[in-house]
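Teaching assistant here, posting this on the class forum so everyone can see the example we discussed in section. The complex has two components, and the goal was to see what a joint structure prediction looks like when all of them are supplied at once.
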Amino acid sequence: MRIHLTLPVLAAACTGLFGLAIGLALFYAPEDADQGLSQRIFYFHVPLALTAYACFGWGAWKALKYLRTRDERADLESYVAIHQGVIFGALTLLTGSIWARVSWGVWWSWGEDELVLFLVLFLFYCAYFMLRFSVDAGPARANMSAVYALFGVVLIPVSFLAIRLSKQFIHPVVFKLDGPQMTGSQFFTFCVCLAAMLTLFATLYAIELAGKRLDRSLRELKELLTA
Amino acid sequence: MTQSEKYTAAAYLVVFLGVLVYVVIIGSKLQRLQREVEQLVALVKEKRTDG
């Protein structure tokens, strides 16, 4: 019942925020004097990366909850959050690669710590699925998945702070200790885009979770009927 | 259309297509669930007529 009520609200909020975010990013935010039009990729690229971190963090939180309570629902929630994180991570890499092509003239730079660490984080969570589906469903699989998800979350601050540790400083640093390095309108646009992306995650998470739960219930019902 | 415009449009398109592909996958899964529900309904009806 809760999902029935929250899902349409989330979907409506997501649609509204995305419409607003696209409008602001393309028509309201001033064009960057240095990078020009391609800087507008930032309004979706960075929120995608931050949402991927949020997904992995949420997945780790649910994994911790599973390890404490042994509640199967927490295991499923952790899995769905990590699945979403991998999708947002793939989109981050793709949009970042396009931005790199315009700004640096290359699709990828192995010398950039942040890029490589984000790729490592992404591949680490891709391997989560290999681990999960190599073991039969049950407590053993849930335990292994939960521990793996918790290990992965350690990579998030490393990936996030990598730009500060980087020696090359090719990748632009927008958020510094003294505040965001952008105008008020640019920062407002960025905040709306981030809100839209987080709402998209919440919506897709709720849809996928509802589908998985329905699938599980149907399997149980089928087993009961055919027994 | 300049190179910068092309790449910016491509980046936005990638995000849109990513979400679209996800929605299509979820849609196909929902169709499979719908078929399974229909099979279960048929199974229950069959059991009732047998009983």
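For the discussion questions: Strands of chain A lie at 175-176, 179-180. Residues 184-226 of chain A form the longest helix (43 residues). Think about how each of these relates to the inputs above.
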